[in-house]
Amino acid sequence: MIELEKITKKYPGQAVPAVDQLTLSMPEGEICVLVGPSGCGKSTILRMINRMIEPTTGVVKINGHDVTNTDSDQLRMGIGYVIQQIGLLPHRTIAENIAIVPRLYKWPKEKIKKRVEELIVMMGLDLEKTWGKYPSQLSGGQMQRVGVARAMAVDPPIMLMDEPFGAVDPIARTHLQDELLRLQKEIKKTIVFVTHDINEAIKMGDRIAIFDAGKLVQFGTPEEILTHPVNEFVENFIGHDRVVKKLNLYQVEDAMHPVQCVVRENEWQNVAQTLKDAGTEVAFVSDQAGKVLGHITLSDALELGGDVEGFKKRVLETKKAFVQSTTPLPDALSLLLEYNSDFLGILRGEKLCGMLSFKDIRNHVYKKEGE
Q: How much is the average pLDDT of 246-266?
C-alpha cells in the first residue's frame, strides 16, 4: 500500500538528515508503527507520506503511484490524519467537525448526516448527547475519538496517526487503543501509527519500525523484534524486560496443554492413585453434571489422605482458578500469582479445554525465543 524508496529529508542548516535513506514497505490492511526516541524522524515520515512536506530525495508511492503525480490537496483528502493535539475546530459542533471532509467532497446533506451518525456511534459516543456539542464540552478521550471519527469520515484506505493517544490519561489511552484494535478487525485500514512508547508499539503494531537519528534500525513483527533485537540500541530501547513484554503477544490457548485427569467430586478417595496412574500432577474436579469445580494436586491429595472436608475445602479454594482460552498470558500469570496456584483451568465457554502452569508459560516463551 505504501512504499518509501530511499527517502531522505534534510532541512537547511541541519548537519544530520531528519530522515536518512529510508526504504520501507507497509503492507495493505496492517498497522505499521513507527517508534523511536524524540527527534528520530517519525513524524517527518508521516508528513512526507501525505505531502505536508516534500522529501529532499527519494520517492513515496501509494498503491504503486508516485504521490508527487497527485494533487497534494486531493491526496490529503483521501488520507485520514489524526494528531495528538486533535485539532478540532472549537467554533464548530462535533457533527460539523466530522463532516468537514465529506463537505469538501460535496457529498449530499443526507449522506453526510448518515455518515456522521454512523461514526459517532462507531466511536462509542452517545449520539444525542454528542452531536450538537462543541469540543470544549467533551473530555480529552472523547475529543480524541472525534478526531479518529473525522479522519475516517470518507472511509479512506490509509490513516496516519501521530501519537494519537499521547495526550490522554492512561485509562482513556488503554480504552482508545483497544477500541482502535477492535475497529481495525472490521475496517482493515492501512494505518501508519507514530509513538515513542515501545509498549504501545508492541500492542498496536502488526509491524514495528524502530528508528534512531533518522535511520531505520529494525523492521519486523513485534515477536521478531522482541525475540531477535538486531543490536544493543534496540535491546536498550525495548527494555530489559523484553521477555515479559513478549507475554502480551500470546493468549493462554497458545501455551496450554491438554487436561490429563478429570475426576468426579465423589471420587476423592482414589484421587492420589488416579493421578499416579495418569502420570500427572493435577486433577480437575467436576460435579455430577460435569461442571468443573476446581482442581487438586497430587501433593495435596497425598497430604489430605482420607480427609473429606479437607479435600472439599482445597478444591473450593481453586474454584476461581479458571480463565477463558483467549485470555492474554500476562493476565493468566497474574491470576496464578493472585490465587497462589500452580495451575489454571482453561475454558471455552463453560467447557474445560486445557490447563496452564508457570512451566507452560516459561516453555512457550523460550520456545518462541529459540525459533
A: 89
Cell numbers found for residue 148: 479518529
Q: C-alpha grid cell for residue 4? A: 518509501
Edge-to-edge strands, sheet with 65-66: 19-26, 2-9, 57-62, 65-66
Beta pairing partners, 367? none
CB 357 within 8 Å of CB 284: no
Query: How far is residue 132's CA from residue 118's CA, in Å, rounded to a whole number?
Result: 15
In 3-state terms the chain splits into helix, strand, coil percentages (rounded to 5) of 45, 25, 30
* pTM: predicted TM-score of the whole model, two decimal places: 0.79
Distance from C-alpha of 315 to C-alpha of 296, rounded to nearest angstrom: 6
Which of 226-253 are b and which e, b meaning 16 or more Cβ less than 10 Å from the residue's Cβ?
Answer: bbebeeebbeebbeeebeebbbebbbbb
Domains of the chain: 2-249 (3.40.50.300), 252-370 (3.10.580.10)
For the cut 90, the answer to whether the pLDDT of residue 3 exceeds it is yes
Asked if residues 268 and 293 have their Cβ atoms less than 8 Å apart, the reply is no
Asked whether the beta carbons of 368 and 246 are under 8 A apart, the reply is yes
Tell me the pLDDT band of 267, cut-offs 50, 70 and 90: confident
Answer whether 94's CB lies under 8 Å from 119's CB. Answer: no
Angle of helix 140-151 versus helix 170-187 axis, rounded to 10: 20
Count the Cβ atoms, other than its own, within 10 Å of residue 264.
Answer: 12
Q: Report the first-to-last Cα separation within the chain, whole angstroms.
A: 29
For residue 5, is pLDDT > 90?
yes
DSSP 251: B
Q: How far is 213 from 223, CA to CA, in rounded Å?
A: 24
